[in-house]
């Protein structure tokens, strides 16, 4: 009797968890869509802000919210990767759904990391100084 219990425990530990795999795919799909749509909003709004020269407070808040969404998508992508790997993404048998979630989570991390870097490098307007040059050109001299 004890042998069958220990064998069933071993089989349960070796089987990938279907719930973690489904969670990995769902979190990865939502976070990937969030990252791509945040990029789309950034590419539509950011050039208009740079051309207009006037930065209303609402536009600044909108840009900051987009940056926060990239950070959130980055964390959700990492969560999807962890869930996918814990759900059996590294196993050769039975982990296709978990592997898909982990890979999509990795793709989300790449897209969100690119957005996070783009936001960090240029989050808002570059200040102009009396000579009409941005701060970066003054620092480089």
Provide tags for this entry.
single chain; 141 residues; mainly alpha; rod-shaped
Radius of gyration: 22 Å
What is the overall silhouette? rod-shaped
Low-pLDDT ranges = 127-131
Distance between the termini: 80 Å
- Total number of helices: 5
The beta-strand count equals 0
Strand portion: under 5%
Q: Helix/strand-derived class?
A: mainly alpha
Assembly form of the protein = single chain
| Average predicted local confidence, pLDDT | 77
SSE order, as H and E?
Answer: HHHHH
Share of helical residues = over 70%
Largest β-sheet summary: none
Written overview of the protein:
- The protein is 80% helix and 0% strand.
- It contains 5 helices and no strands.
- Helix 2 (18-52) runs antiparallel to helix 3 (57-89) and helix 2 runs parallel beside helix 4.
- The model is unreliable at 127-131 (pLDDT under 50).
How would the blueprint of this fold be written?
Blueprint: H1 2-14, H2 18-52, H3 57-89, H4 96-121, H5 135-140
Summarize the structure.
By secondary structure, this protein is an all-alpha fold. It has helices at 2-14, 18-52, 57-89, 96-121, 135-140.
